[in-house]
Amino acid sequence: MNLLNSDHFWQFACTLYAKPDQQTTLLALQNQQGKNVNLCLLLLYLDSLNLSINTQQLNELIDAISEFDTHALQPLRAARSYLKANQNTISDYTTIRAELLSAELKLEKQQQYILIEAVNKFELIQHAEPNNIELYMKAT
Fold first, then answer.
1. Which residue from 39, 52, 49 is spatially nearest to 124, judged by alpha carbons?
2. How far apart are CA 118 and CA 4, in angstroms?
3. Which of 4, 57, 98, 112 shows a CA-CA span of 20 to 30 A to 41?
4. Residue 50 region by backbone torsions, left for phi larger than 0, else alpha for psi between -120 and 50, else beta
5. Domain layout of the chain by residue ranges
């Protein structure tokens, strides 16, 4: 099987995330259920390619991004959220917000790269109707 390409995944993710209903759903999964948006996007990408992963592989993907998520993305999101809540007291809020969003987007792309590197080590199974996202939703 050909290895998956992180740029193709990024384009898929950006296109899917740009849809208002998808963005709302993915952010709800992140904020209410603690799911990782990039992992959700990867699983939907694999579904679109008719590729299926198993529970062990899912757990390996979660492990692959856990530290990066904890130490890079979550603190940046927390800072952005704090600043938004206090924007009236921050003199250059608009510029700071734009710079933080830019940094967050770069980190999101890096996390997607980590996911693609991890998934490319797997033996993926062709499946006519994969449902990788359901596997993730059932996982604790």
1. 52
2. 10
3. 98
4. left
5. 6-138
